[in-house]
From TrEMBL:
<keyword id="KW-0460">Magnesium</keyword>
<dbReference type="Pfam" id="PF00348">
    <property type="entry name" value="polyprenyl_synt"/>
</dbReference>
<dbReference type="InterPro" id="IPR033749">
    <property type="entry name" value="Polyprenyl_synt_CS"/>
</dbReference>
<dbReference type="GO" id="GO:0046872">
    <property type="term" value="F:metal ion binding"/>
</dbReference>
<comment type="similarity">
    <text>Belongs to the FPP/GGPP synthase family.</text>
</comment>
<keyword id="KW-0808">Transferase</keyword>
<protein>
    <submittedName>
        <fullName>Polyprenyl synthetase family protein</fullName>
    </submittedName>
</protein>
<keyword id="KW-0479">Metal-binding</keyword>
<dbReference type="InterPro" id="IPR000092">
    <property type="entry name" value="Polyprenyl_synt"/>
</dbReference>
<dbReference type="InterPro" id="IPR008949">
    <property type="entry name" value="Isoprenoid_synthase_dom_sf"/>
</dbReference>
<dbReference type="GO" id="GO:0004659">
    <property type="term" value="F:prenyltransferase activity"/>
</dbReference>
<dbReference type="GO" id="GO:0008299">
    <property type="term" value="P:isoprenoid biosynthetic process"/>
</dbReference>
Amino acid sequence: MHETTRLAGLIQERITDRLAEHRQLLEPLGPDAAPLLDEAFDFLSGGKRFRAQFAVLGYRAVRPLDLDGEIDAELGRVLDAACALEFFHAAALIHDDVIDRSDTRRGRPAVHRAFASLHGQSGWRGAADHFGLAGAILLGDLLQSWADELMQSATEAGDDRRGSRAAREHFNRMRSEVAVGQYLDVLEEQQPAFADDREQLERSTRVLVYKSAKYSVEAPLLIGGALAGATEEQERALAAFGLPVGVAFQLRDDLLGVFGDEEVTGKPSGGDLTEGKRTVLVTLARRDLPTTQRLIFDDLLGTGDLDDEQIVMLQRTIRDSGAVERVEEMIARNVERATRSLREAPIAEDAAARLTLLAERTTQRSH
């Protein structure tokens, strides 16, 4: 726990320092830019830091790294890479809330709603909602730019050019996969009807893998490992662990998106139902429903103004279908597969033990 707390502190300190540097550089633009930077500070002051932790453990799986001493050049570049993932993740969440029309994030107004409120309070011309969307899109773009700068700093500072190049390639691939995965998610929501059961499960799984699973665990591990000079065998071992944990991570997220406690998750319970997310959970739930019940389920799913009673009815339908138990079994199987892959993996034993613990934390979380 000491190391986890220490790492979280190092990550937050690095993020704060980098944001302060950007604020200073942008100071000549005047006070009008302050709300944009304030939102960046606020948004990046929270979060679970799972991706940053996986990046650091990816490095430590290949090469020792002391977190307790001074921040030397080696630790600094690892922290920059970890922070790059946090900046990118923040940007992705901000854009995701715009796409999904989500009003809240982590128990506070989503960034586009915060900017819309600023517009209304300031008495500016034009539409507050449009200003909110514009502000959120631009802040997300800005954070992606800063993420790229951090990754460039991490990859340019080391002597291992092959490893640095591999880390950059993993980062670039991750960004492309997330964007395309997000598009495929949006595309699924727009389809007039579900595909047949088998094809729909394949489509839902494809979105899960590319929008979230690979970028949540596998990519951070590979980036950290590459910076440490991982061999091809070590990269394969990190990927063999990372992908199933990432799948389990997102399956847990899908359960929370339907059944999560708003007081804990900071987002409305049943949000995935009002947004019409065709997740693996939803796909499995409707698969065995009688025809009439399936038609009612499909008709309600994605209705933005579902009332509490309708949300509870859909939640009950999903529970009664047995889909929750099947998804829990899938989570357990994926975590077991991942931890089993570490038994013969050519990585440091202490890092393997910490990866096992982090896999449990990320897949058994309540928010």
